[in-house]
């Protein structure tokens, strides 16, 4: 196993069966996987972590993903939209607190036309030289093109699962092919591209996860969010089991060894499920953390999965506490924008 992992670190592309074996390692044997992933992370990124600020600006969603609390069929959820001014003010406050990357995320909400989003991007970019990442779901090629032209730098859109049948079953409003063509369009337009997937979806196997990792490689992504499934009562998958935090960390570690330069967050979902494993992820390949920065009254409504809320603080105070926390783990805080590492 050790030899196989070193070969992958040197460029060997493992078979799906080999990936399944690696992902089956027990706690004790997985330490070598984590150690190699940590070494590769340090080689590419040193000891520093990028903190990204995320503004979840609307919880309206036209999509109906069977696992997500924001799905359009969930009529129990109170919906909100932040105004242009609210979003821009939140962004400015975050920039003043030290953020160099802001992620603008929402459900698939076409209320925000490309012109509205464009105005927001332009205003933020006029205020400071930071990176803007969009995470707004499937749109027309023209929209993606316009938003890139006005200044968006990056785009996050997970492929969720590489199993086409499972994908189509979990996403009744769209198709796997459609998602792939959106991801390819974004890449072609020159966005720094993030994909990712969920660990522990009902119907998923280790083979599916092996294919998920290989799909990240094929898409040549710059970033990948890999998080565990957390059941939400207001969805058709509400009574299913959550994903495994341990398996999630193994998948992050193997992705680091295989993909090398890619930005990998210790995902929010991993932290919600098990804080201990989220910390572990920083020593098993992860080099990014995302911090919510929208006002608190919206945070509780952006309920993709159930979670408890932290005490109310200012954006600046919250960032300082996060920095202290990371430093307490002997990690450093990155001072740059954390662009895609192109070799
Ligand atoms: N558990 C874990 N992750 C989820 N997501 C949506 N619902 C859930 C859930 N119940 C993730 C998806 C999506 C991102 C915004 O949140 O991967 O891309
Ligand atoms: Fe909407 Fe995204 Fe949730 Fe799907 S995962 S329902 S697209 S917010």
TrEMBL record:
The protein's matches in PANTHER family, at most eight in alphabetical order, are given as: 3-METHYLORNITHINE SYNTHASE, BIOTIN SYNTHASE
Task: Provide the binding site for [4Fe-4S] cluster.
Answer: 61, 65, 68
Its keywords, alphabetically, are:
4Fe-4S, Iron, Iron-sulfur, Metal-binding, S-adenosyl-L-methionine
Radical SAM core domain ranges (all copies): 47-269
The cofactors it requires, by name, are: [4Fe-4S] cluster; [2Fe-2S] cluster
Entry's PROSITE patterns?
RADICAL_SAM (PS51918)
Record-annotated residues binding S-adenosyl-L-methionine?
160, 179
Provide the binding site for (3R)-3-methyl-D-ornithine.
135
- In which organism is this protein found? Caloramator fervidus
Q: Identify the Gene3D superfamilies for this entry.
A: Aldolase class I
| Protein name, per record | Biotin synthase
Keyword Transit peptide belongs to the record: no
Q: How is the cofactor bound?
A: Binds 1 [4Fe-4S] cluster. The cluster is coordinated with 3 cysteines and an exchangeable S-adenosyl-L-methionine.
Q: Which GO terms describe its molecular function?
A: 4 iron, 4 sulfur cluster binding; metal ion binding; transferase activity
Provide the GO biological process annotations: sulfur compound biosynthetic process; water-soluble vitamin biosynthetic process
Question: Entry's Pfam families?
Answer: Radical_SAM (PF04055)
